[in-house]
Structure formats: C-alpha cells, structure tokens
Amino acid sequence: MLPFPARRASGLALVAMALLADLAVSSGLWRARADDVTPLGGPLLAGSGTVAITGPSLPALPATTATSFVVADADTGQVLAAHNAHLRLAPASTLKVLTALTLIPRLDPKQMVVVQPDAPRTDGTKVGVVAGQSYSVGDLFTAMLMMSANDAAVALADANGGLARTLAEMNAQAAWLNARDTVAKTPDGLDAPGQTSSAYDLALMFRAGLGIGDFRHYLSLERAQFPAPNGKSYQIQSHDKLLAGYPGMIGGKNGYTVEARASYVGAASRGGHTIIVAVMRDQPNFWDEVKALFDWGFAVDGKGDPVGTLVPAGPLATPSALAASAAPGANASGMGARSRARSPDRSKNGGGDVLVGGAVAFGATVFLSAVARHVRMCQRRQRRRAHRRYLDGLSRLSRFTDTSRRP
C-alpha cells in the first residue's frame, strides 16, 4: 500500500484530472476557432465548400447529401476530400468510437460487470441488459460497437467508475487525439446540449481505433450471441450494412438521432490502401453514398495532391505547427472555390480559444507530472526509511550477538 502522502497525491491527481477535463468541456476550451489559427489538418479544411485531391485524369468526386464528410487515407493520414470538415454537429452513435477508444485500454474484456439500474433505463437502441445481472466487458463492447447498444455503453461507463469519470476521460482522450471539435456529454451519443463532433474528428478517432486490435475485432463481427438470464443467449447482428457486402470492409459505426440525423464512420482496405469515410447529418439511407466515396477514395489515393492531413496525437504547441501538419502543396478542386475562404458556421455550438485550451492542457500535463513525481518521491522516501530501519535492526542484532565484545 502507498504511504499516506502518496495516496493523498494519487487522489489529488484523479480529482484534478476530472476537474480540468470538466473545465475544458464546459468552457469549450478544447475547441479551435478558425479565425484564430490555421485549422487542424491544413488551411483548405477551413472553409464550408468542397475540396478534393487534384491530379491528371482523376475521377470526379461523387455527389452526396451529407452536410459534412471526409475521405482520408488511414495509413498516411492524407485527406483526399472534405466538405465542411470541421463543422461541429451532433454525432449520434458515432461518438461510441470515442467511448471505445477510451474504455478498451482500461477494461479487461474478461471482467464481469454487474449492470446497474441506469443502464436498462437509457433510451434508444438497446441490447437488453438486465439490472443486477453480470455480463463480460467483451460482450458489452460487442453489443455497443456491433449493434450500437446504448444500454451496453452506459454499463461500460459504470464499470469504469461511473459516468462523470468516463466522460472526463473521454474528453481527455479526444484532446490528446487533437479531436478538438469533439465534446462528449454522454457515453452513448444520444443528443445532449453541447455535445458535438465533426467529420474530421470522426476520421481522426477512427484512424486511432484501427490501431487497436479489439476495436477492429468488435467492428468486424457480423453476428454474435449475447447472454440472457438463466444461462440462455440470443443472436445480435451488426448494424453496418457494408460489412457483409463491400469488398475489403473492416467495419464501421453508424448512428441516428433526431438532432444528428444519420452519421457514419468506417474503413475498408483494398490493394494496399486503407480508406476512411466519415459522413455527418446525412439522409438515413446513406449506404450507396458511402460506398461511392470509398470507391472514389481507392481510385484516387496516391495519385495527386491531397487537401490536408489527419494530424497525429499529442501536443501541437503552436499555430505554425497546425499549419505545418497539412500536406505541402495541397490544392483544391474547383468545387466550392469561392467559399473556401469562409469558416464553417459555428454559431449554434459556440467555440473556445485554442490557445487557452492548449494552456489548460499544458497546465494539466504539468500538474499531473508534478503529482506523479511527488508520488514517486514519497515512495522512494518510504523505501529509504524502511531500509534504514532494517539496517539499524541488523546493527542492533549484530551488537547483541557479538560474543567477542562481552566481558
């Protein structure tokens, strides 16, 4: 057990992390304003028009009804096409990608979870968990990602220590990934005031998920058996209609709410290329549009100048670093050329100052590092004291047993 100063410092670290994340979320400090700095991914992603890779004899970008979309190469991070890339919209269940990225590393898939009463009470799509019953974390992740079960998402948040802690960690995860258009207010993506994401962020987060084996596994499942009371089970199926029919499909996450309308993010791999497509605020039957965007992405990938890039995780300290993250020499197609200088309409969701947000993130990092150093120092001090007591004891024992000094 840690000595009391170390335990107290560890508790302070958890409290500070939750408070700082809540401050960042409530004040919108993670958000970047397009009129303050170059937007993440490059200047061509700032506008409200459509931009697409250019090069000789490339096919035209297919038409879509999505309010916002991004097509990107998952391996290089190059953005091949975008429309309203940073427009902040309600994400619906595509936010479960962030829930998974946050919780998969923290929860053992074999861990058994007793479902609390709040999980069955959640709205929307459910797998049918029963309060008081035990389920494995792996089964809950399968239900959340494969069939978009909101009750499974809430049960996982409870298993992680509760809703407040999970949301703080989700927003910290989004900040680390530089998904600065994303603010999580729920673990399941149901509409909530101030909850937003963007097509750019969905592509960014899904790219991170592709590097996690369990994430890919859960999304690749077409069917699974889900446990029921009394030792029984029933079959659940994937909601991703591209999984079975589109060549090279890895998997994807779709969502729908009244506020968000339809959204989707997914990836497919073919011919040595992996393409990510993210669409937001689309009509419900978007599957043919997404397939056309995938086909187009495979046809043009690596054959021209991209329009931007998906930035890496970690600190991007200065506005110049944000600009440098864009691919050099990137050109836009003629579509929406007059509107590229305009910024996306952010009036409905507001916006924070990225510099202040960076300061908060930097301050949180410095504080938590200091706390960690204090914990280690307390541990070392405790070990040194124990070592000194041990040596003193040996010395006393030696004096007691040394017969050569006795009269």
CATH superfamily of the largest domain: DD-peptidase/beta-lactamase superfamily
Alpha-carbon distance between the termini? 45 Å
Structural class per helix/strand content? alpha+beta
Mean pLDDT rating: 80
Report on this model:
The chain is α+β, with helices and mostly antiparallel strands and 407 residues long. It has two domains: 30-352, DD-peptidase/beta-lactamase superfamily (Beta-lactamase, 3-Layer(aba) Sandwich); 365-405. It has eleven helices and eleven strands. The chain has helices spanning 4-27, 96-103, 118-121, 137-146, 150-159, 163-176, 199-209, 213-220, 287-300, 319-324, 354-401; strands at 50-52, 68-73, 78-83, 112-114, 134-136, 223-228, 232-237, 249-257, 261-270, 273-282, 308-309. It is globular and about 65 Å long. The model is unreliable at 1-15, 17-36, 317-362 and 393-407 (pLDDT under 50).
Q: What labels would you give this structure?
A:
alpha+beta; disordered N terminus; 2 domains; disordered C terminus; two-stranded antiparallel ribbon
Show the helix and strand layout.
Elements: H1 4-27, E1 50-52, E2 68-73, E3 78-83, H2 96-103, E4 112-114, H3 118-121, E5 134-136, H4 137-146, H5 150-159, H6 163-176, H7 199-209, H8 213-220, E6 223-228, E7 232-237, E8 249-257, E9 261-270, E10 273-282, H9 287-300, E11 308-309, H10 319-324, H11 354-401
Antiparallel strand pairs: 1-3, 2-3, 2-10, 3-11, 4-5, 6-7, 8-9, 9-10
Helix pairs in contact: 1-6, 1-11, 2-6, 2-7, 4-5, 4-8
